[in-house]
Amino acid sequence: MNSSNPKRHFLRGMRDALPFILVLVPFAALFGVVATEAGLNVVEVMSFSVLVIAGAAQFTAIQLMTENAPTIIVILTALAVNLRMAMYSASLTPYLGQAPMWRRAIAAYFMVDQPYALSQIKFEMERNLTVSERYAYYFGTVAPLAPFWYGSSYVGAVAGAQVPPAFALDFAMPITFLAMIAPALRTLAHVAAATTSIILALLMAWMPYGSGLLVAAIGAMIVGAQVELLTARKARQ
């Protein structure tokens, strides 16, 4: 088989992404349930999932919306949560940046954690791939994930609409964030950033509409970046 065939890389991307479905399905379904618990109807939940397609930002925005935060605060906080996507895009630009604008726009829409992680590893290991082959692999990783994200969000929204008020699921959101964050604490920089965000979030809890989260997010990124630089400097020495 010709290793330069984009179709082959597309199928490989699909195969590599399949295990993530086990995590993505319950997460998307939980968002649907939590969003309906917060007062959104099924159409609003689906519009949210299709337009934003970023779980952590969606949960954050829903929490702020339930607190009647101003729209600008909701948007800025969700953007702060998703700032990592800008770093993802920057790191993939050397591999995908030569493609036409329409391809880059579609890739940007589907820029989420799993396709990025898989693609970054693939492109680093196989540097001789053409731009077409790289895009084929990238969209291959997206192909099995996006439909399950949309479908599971819908199932969760429909199920959430049937949950009686007496069985409120407010506890689901903090548990979900703990489940997302804990596995990511792999290095000293990660732990330092997480610790900083917790301390600043508690200190800034007095700020209206959860805007203290923005301060905590910025402070955590600064501390995490500095710790990572110091760690790299010590490793070189």
TrEMBL record:
Q: Which UniProt keywords apply?
A: Cell membrane, Membrane, Transmembrane, Transmembrane helix, Transport
> Membrane-crossing residues?
135-151, 163-181, 213-232
The record's subcellular locations are: Cell membrane
Question: How does the record say this protein sits in the membrane?
Answer: Multi-pass membrane protein
Record keyword Cell membrane present: yes
Spell out the GO cellular component terms annotated for this protein, sorted alphabetically and separated by semicolons. Answer: plasma membrane
InterPro entries given in the database record:
Brnchd-chn_aa_trnsp_permease
Transport as a keyword of this entry, yes or no, is yes
Q: Which Pfam families match?
A: AzlC
GO BP terms, alphabetized: L-valine transmembrane transport
Name the family the entry cites: Belongs to the AzlC family.
Q: What is this protein called?
A: Predicted branched-chain amino acid permease (Azaleucine resistance)
The organism encoding this protein is: Aliiroseovarius sediminilitoris
